[in-house]
Amino acid sequence: MGKVFLFGKDVDTDQIIASQYLLYPTVEEMKAHTFESLDTEFAKNVRPGDFVAATDNFGCGSSREQAPAVLKALGVKAVFARSFARIFYRNCINIGLPAIVCQDLCDHVKTGDEIELDMAKGTVTAGGVDYACTKLPEHLQNILNQGGLIASLDKDA
Predict the structure, then answer these.
(1) Backbone dihedral region of 127: left (phi > 0), alpha (psi from -120 to 50 degrees) or beta?
(2) Residues paired with 60 in a beta bridge
(3) Using an 8 Å Cβ cutoff, are 1 and 49 in contact?
(4) What's the total number of domains in the chain?
(5) Per-residue burial over 56-85, b = 16 or more CB atoms within 10 Å of its CB, e = otherwise
(6) For residue range 50-63, what is the model confidence (pLDDT) as tens digits?
(7) What is the pTM of this model?
(8) I need a surface site. Which of 16, 36, 42, 97 has the fewest CB within 10 A?
(9) C-alpha span between 24 and 14 (Å, rounded)
(10) CATH of the domain at 7
(11) Enclosing domain of residue 63
């Protein structure tokens, strides 16, 4: 169970972490500036186990890996959207951050609502209602369970 932080459509990677912060040497230093242009209090208010949700085309823009990395570093448990930019989606899987397609969730929640994710069932529960989400294939779920693609490959080596 965690709080949801709701954003709209076409949230690009520069809105997730602006380019001037990419000069910082570590993701730990960058994470305090996550969503700074959309919600100046996001990095202060998000807690480990919370969720980010958006409508369409989340993570569009550049292919910067730091965008999902700052979310994971802040403890975001998963990102929900109706659709994702392909490279953002792959970057999430690569670092072990679940990116889950959920068509109806954003129409029924607001920032601050408590939600619960059941990845095994492919559902998210908000306000006592279950919303169907894309259930990840077993091979992607295994990659996430091992902490991402690199961690998964390292374990196989």
Answers:
(1) left
(2) 12
(3) yes
(4) 1
(5) ebbbbbbebbbbbbbbbbbebbbbbbbbbb
(6) 999 999 999 999 88
(7) 0.93
(8) 36
(9) 15
(10) 3.20.19.10
(11) 2-156
